[in-house]
Structures are given as C-alpha cells and as structure tokens.
Write a structure and sequence with these properties.
The complex is a heterodimer of chains A (258) and B (330). With 258 residues, chain A is of the alpha/beta class. In chain A, 34% of the residues lie in helices and 28% in strands. Chain A contains nine helices and twelve strands. In chain A, the strands form three sheets. In chain A, strands 6-9-10-3-11-12 form a six-stranded mixed β-sheet, sandwiched between helices. A four-stranded antiparallel β-sheet of chain A has the order 2-1-4-5, covered by helices on one side. A two-stranded antiparallel sheet of chain A has the order 7-8. Chain A starts with a strand and ends with a helix. Chain B has a domain of 215 residues. Chain B is built from 15 helices and two strands. The chains are: A alpha/beta (258), B mainly alpha (330). At the A-B interface, helix 2 and strand 8 of A face helix 10 and helix 11 of B.
C-alpha cells in the first residue's frame, strides 16, 4: 500500500533550480534510502515533504490525501515526522518541552482555566519514551543544550516517535555518532519497519543504507535518477549511480571497507 | 562533562531549584535584598511603608513595560518603541477624554488600542516585510513620538475626567491603583508565559526559530501576536502614567525602553531569547525602582541615575552571558 507519493516535485530558490520534477513513492512499513551527492537536493526534497518548504509545482499525497497545501503542523498531525540533521532542538528548554513542542498536553487549572500545560504528564511520558529507546539521560529536567551530541539526538528521535508517526524521515542520523550509537540507530530503523512505520533514510554512509533499507533511491541533479531494490543491487552500482557512470570500482571498494 | 559526574554544590542546587520552581534567578533576588539593605543603611527615609508604596508606584509603569519587553525579548525579538508607544497611547487617551469629551471608558480603550495598533504594525513589518525588529521598532520609536506630538500639538493635554484620574491616583484599601493593576497584569502574564502553550511556544521560538517551525508552530503568526501584545501593554503603561500625572504628556516615556529592557534582562531574560520569566522581570523592575528611589533619597542628581541605569544594563548582560558560557554548550 502506498503511503507517500510525490509526482513532479519542482522547487527553486531564486535562480537556482534544486528539484526538477522528482517522483518518489514510499509504501507503509518500507525503509527507503535516499542517497546522492552534496547538492543533489536530498534535504530540500525532504523539507517539501514535511512542509518547511512549499513545492513550486507537483503533487504530494500522503495516506491518500493531498497534503500540498498543509503547513508543517498539519502534516505532523497526519503522521509525518522528521529528524533533522541539525536536530532542530530548542536548546534552552528541557527534554519534555522539546519532545512535546507544539503538542503540549493541557489541563484545566482548578477545573476553571483551560489551556494550562500539564507539565507532570509531559515529564512522565517523556521519561517513558526515553526509557523505551533504551537511552540514558542525566536528567529529564535539564536543558538539552547541556547534553552530548548523542544524547541530544536521543531527544530528537524521541520527539519524532512519541506521536505514533506513519513516516519518519531521518536526515543523516548517524553522521555524528560513535560506532555503538550508529548500531542502535540502525536497530531502531529495523524496529520501526517491523511496527509498520515507513522510514526515509538520508545518509552518506552507504554501508548503513545497504544494510537497513528495502529500496534505494538515487537523487541526481534534482531528479530521482535511479530506484534500486536493495537486495538486488551492489555498492558498485549505487556509487556509480550517485556519481553518474564511469569506472567507480575503486570508490566502491573504498566505501565497502567502510 | 565533569558537571554530570560531580554532585552539584549547595549553592548550585538552590540556584537550580529557584529557577525551576519559581522561575527566578537567585542572583537577582540577592541583588534586590542587598541593594535594599544598603539603601536602608544609607538613608533613614528608605525603610517606611509610605516609601515602599512610593517605590511600587514608581515601578508600576516601568513594570508593565518590562512585562512587554520580557515577552518580546523572550521570543527572540526586540521592541525599542515601548517608551514612545506609551507616550502616544497616553496622548491618545487624553485626546479622547478631553478634546472629544468622550466617557473615560473610551479613553481607556483608546490607550490600549493605540498601543496595540502600533505593536500590530511592528509585527506586520517584522514578519511580512522582513525588516529587522531593531530597525522596525527604532523607526516606530520616532514615528510614535512624532505622532504623539502632532496629536497634542506639542503640549500636554490637561483636564482629565475624575474617573480616569482615579486609575492613576486612586487608593482602594490604601494601595495605589497602578500598583494593583501592575500586580494583576504580572500575575496573568506570568501564568501565560510559564504555564500555557502560548508561553512555551514563545520561549521555544526565541530559543530556536527553526525548531519551532519544524515542530509545526506558526512562527510568523506567533510573532505578530507578541508584538501586538507588547504594544497593547505599552498602551496600558501609557494609561497608568497619564492617569497618575493627570495629563496626556507627549514627552512621557522617553528612555523608558532602556529601563524596561534593563529590568527584563536583570530578571533573567536571555537577551537572545529562549529564557524569560515574569516573576524574574518583576524582581528586575523592583531593583530598578529601589535604585532610582534610593539615589533620589540620597539626593543624587537624576543625570547620574540615567548613567546608573545604563551601566546596570551592560553589567547585567555581561553577567548573564558569562554564566551561559560557563554552564552550557549552546
């Protein structure tokens, strides 16, 4: 069942055309790798899915609904979450504030004044989510700016997973992590798939992409240049599609070694 | 890293508890008490109920402006037009009451509406025309002041109706009306900033606009509300001032933005947004009030008071930034 389908997405910034009509579809519970050179348009494409950017033309359907006109908040409501490369955390706020940003649960104060943020409920659920991810944070009431990079990423991941998403987009989730942390992110992606949650993984680490995805889409010069079944492709083919032909065995061998 | 291992000291724990539970920076409370103690020693007139009420009365206008400054700065913005908008609002209210001869209720509405409108224009220009807040509100500082002078033809408007003057000079239960209005405004503002989604989004926005946008908060819309709110609060301050001095003075509020922003920063508002509390700001406003009152009692010329306020602003930001660098990786 197709969860997300993009048709002919175009986006330009002033005179710079970044996307020239991208087609992409993701099925429910599918893990799709999105690879391509720097400047190929990966992050821009993802931001047109989350609604941070408005596509100039083309169509985006999610769960059978046209979502082109929706803002980022409405798209999150439908179940699209993204873990940004810069994590997009409010660093002076604490863990629960970040996880629930934009969706704070509220209660009535003295049964009279509505709209009071239920901090206790937020803390409780945030702690539960962090625990479910098997992570350890020094304190849930500390500002996230005082955490290490890996801990901050845990918070970003927890934010993306707390509201039962249908699609999680991860932009370079392993770029800044230590070896063990990389493995736990890859395990997480497998777990999401087993729960029927679709994942789009943007990564330069082709080993990770080959080991965890079902399909690999290569973005090149603002187009979806290749759509490869992971089980039937090879490092060599992926690398050659990214750089656009020629002899790439040396580069592929280098990538293979990791 | 080391801080995660080491058990924080007693002072650090009290500091954190104060910030987390009361939303007050402990340092500012200590400064307020120390300053008050010093003034009490230096001047025999300082410690008395009437002087205490004097300080609160003098703080009421600045306090309301400082609340506005707290919201705007907490959201990562800036409003330099607070003092001028306050002057414009006061003149607008006096004009409605005296020149048009309308009932006092309309004058009250005119004050807040004039302020809110100026703030709304600030917000529109910042979020739709992409002119930096510094320039927009600096321009509004000139525009509002000029308009106040035009409306009043350069002279103070006298002869306000008694009902309007009561807002500034009335003393129900012996407590000055402006003080009552400040306290009520501060309580509401504190609850909004600390306990509602609006308040949390305000701070998140000041912390990281990108994070707020990614979380689905309508960033521009939110900023427009905050600037409008800031203007409306400046309008309220204008009402309090006009009613207290019994005149719509077009030069009212000159340099008040300096004091208001200083009070907000002393109270623990991060100059670059993301951290702010109304209780803290009220402590900051009291510090400014005690400072001015004490210097006046000590017969220090008002020129020096102006210098003191400026110096305190720079010192407060220095201390704040020093702590931020020391504590976090932001």
């Amino acid at each position: 069942m197709t969860l997300l389908s993009l048709h002919g997405i175009r986006k330009s910034f002033g005179a710079v055309d970044v996307l020239h009509g991208v087609d992409l579809s993701v099925a429910a519970g599918e893990v799709v790798g999105l690879v391509g050179d720097n400047g190929a348009g990966k992050s821009t494409l993802m931001k047109t899915i989350t609604g941070i950017y408005r596509a100039d033309s083309g169509s985006i359907e999610f769960d059978g609904k046209d979502i082109l006109a929706l803002d980022p908040g409405q798209r999150r409501e439908l179940g699209i979450e993204m873990i940004y490369q810069d994590l997009s955390l409010a660093k002076q706020q604490d863990v629960a504030a970040n996880i629930f940003l934009g969706r704070e649960p509220t209660k009535k104060l003295f049964g009279l004044f509505p709209g009071i943020v239920d901090k206790a409920e937020m803390d409780r659920q945030a702690a539960k989510m962090i625990e479910r991810l098997g992570a350890h944070l020094p304190s849930i009431n500390r500002s996230v700016g005082s955490f290490s990079g890996g801990q901050q990423q845990t918070v970003a991941i927890a934010r993306a997973l707390t509201f039962n998403p249908k699609l999680v987009i991860m932009d370079e989730p392993t770029a800044a992590l230590a070896v063990r942390e990389v493995q736990s992110v890859l395990d997480l992606i497998r777990r999401l798939r087993s729960e029927g949650i679709a994942v789009i993984l943007i990564s330069h680490r082709l080993n990770d992409v080959l080991s965890v995805t079902d399909r690999i889409v290569v973005l090149r010069h603002g187009r979806a240049d290749a759509d490869l079944i992971t089980a039937k492709t090879s490092m060599n083919e992926v690398v050659s599609r990214i750089v656009g032909g020629g002899d790439t065995s040396a580069a592929a061998a280098h990538e293979q070694r990791g | 890293m080391a801080s995660e291992m080491a058990q924080p000291g007693f002072w650090a724990r009290v500091q954190r508890a104060s910030v987390e539970r009361l939303h007050i920076r402990l340092e500012s409370l200590v400064v307020l008490l120390a300053l008050s103690a010093a003034m009490a020693v230096l001047s025999p007139f300082f410690l008395s109920l009437s002087n205490f009420l004097n300080i609160l009365l003098a703080t009421s206008t600045i306090g309301v402006l400082a609340i506005a400054a707290t919201f705007v700065i907490g959201s990562g913005g800036l409003d330099l037009s607070l003092g001028s908008v306050m002057g414009l609002a006061g003149v607008a209210g006096a004009f409605v009451a005296v020149n048009l001869g309308w009932p006092s209720v309309f004058a009250v509405v005119a004050c807040i509406l004039a302020g809110g409108l100026a703030g709304y224009i600030n917000g529109q220009l910042v979020t739709r025309a992409f002119v930096p807040a510094f320039i927009v509100t600096l321009g509004m500082l000139g525009l509002a002041r000029g308009l106040a002078l035009v409306i009043s033809q350069g002279r103070a408007i006298y002869g306000l109706p008694a009902a309007l003057v009561y807002i500034g000079q009335g003393r129900p239960f012996g407590i000055p009306m402006p003080v009552i209005i400040l306290v009520l405004t501060a309580i509401v503002a504190h609850c909004v900033l600390a306990y509602t989604r609006f308040g949390r989004h305000t701070l998140a926005l000041g912390d990281s606009e990108g994070a707020a946008r990614a979380a689905g908060i309508r960033v521009e819309h939110h900023r427009r509300i905050i600037y409008t709110l800031s203007g409306a609060l400046a309008g309220l301050a204008g009402l309090l001032f006009t009613a207290r001095v019994n005149a719509g003075d077009p030069t009212a509020g000159i340099n008040y933005e300096l004091t208001a922003i200083t009070a907000a920063i002393i109270g623990g508002t991060n100059l670059f947004g993301g951290r702010a509390s109304i209780l803290g700001t009220m402590i900051g406003a009291l510090i400014m009030g005690v400072l001015q009152n004490g210097l006046t009692l000590l017969a220090v010329q008002s020129y020096y008071q102006q210098m003191a306020i400026g110096a305190v602003l720079i010192l407060a930001v220095f201390i704040d930034q020093y702590q931020v660098r020391k504590e976090s990786r932001v």
